[in-house]
Amino acid sequence: MKNLINKDSKIMTKKISIAIDGPAGAGKSTIAKATAKELGYLYIDTGAMYRAIGVAVMDRGYDPKCADDVIKTLDSIHMDVTAKEDGQHILLSGEDVNGKIRTPEASMAASAVATIPEVRYKLVEIQRGLAKQGGVIMDGRDIGTYVLPDAEVKIFLTASVETRAKRRYKELLEKGEKCTLDEVISDMEARDKQDSEREFAPLKRAEDSVLLDTSDKTLKQSVQALIKIIREKI
């Protein structure tokens, strides 16, 4: 991808924290990762961290929707977040689980465990620690409203349900997953409802965030739009 920023830009010299929120399938991870690469920033995928917790709970034979089951496993879950050439990787007790966390089951498990305060306290502490150094782009559901309320730039990135479902459907097919578009749309709508209606730190647009709809944008156009917003905000 062509470098979109002048090396003399204050973005390159002023290391800030950028919070990106939005619903499942909006392309947050892909767009944030590409933008971080352009800016020379560290990209942190918080959704992957919740997926990892969900996978860890299921691997132990427990139900991610049962708070008691999840809470009693937290102390035994040892998570490390590492940066590699191809992006962020999540390690559970030394095992790289990046492949295991990108399934519909892991997605729903992540949404379930994210409603449990004890899980969020554990992960938010890690996330805030990573953001302290600056030069960070972090995406999730409540980054601007809860995790990093003082972030210098906040963006709410979204797209239509149909667009988001088609993107996720394509990703799943490329990974060899068997599903239908209707199933993905249904899963997406259920995820939106669960994320928006949970009592603790629900998916919500921060009042001081900028709305970016990528329904009709390519990845390159989305990254350019995101960088334009960042440059205008600092």
Protein architecture, described:
The chain is α/β, with parallel strands linked by helices. The chain is 48% helix and 16% strand. The protein contains ten helices and eight strands. It has helices spanning 10-13, 28-39, 46-59, 67-73, 104-113, 117-131, 143-147, 161-174, 181-197, 219-233; strands at 17-21, 42-45, 79-84, 87-92, 95-96, 136-140, 153-158, 210-213. The strands form two sheets. Strands 2-6-1-7-8 form a five-stranded parallel beta sheet, with helices on both faces. A hairpin with a 2-residue loop joins β4 and β5 (95-96). α3 crosses α5 and α5 (104-113) packs parallel to α9. The two termini are 24 Å apart.
In short:
The protein is of the alpha/beta class.
Based on the model shown, name its key terms.
single chain; 10 helices; 48% helix; 234 residues; alpha/beta
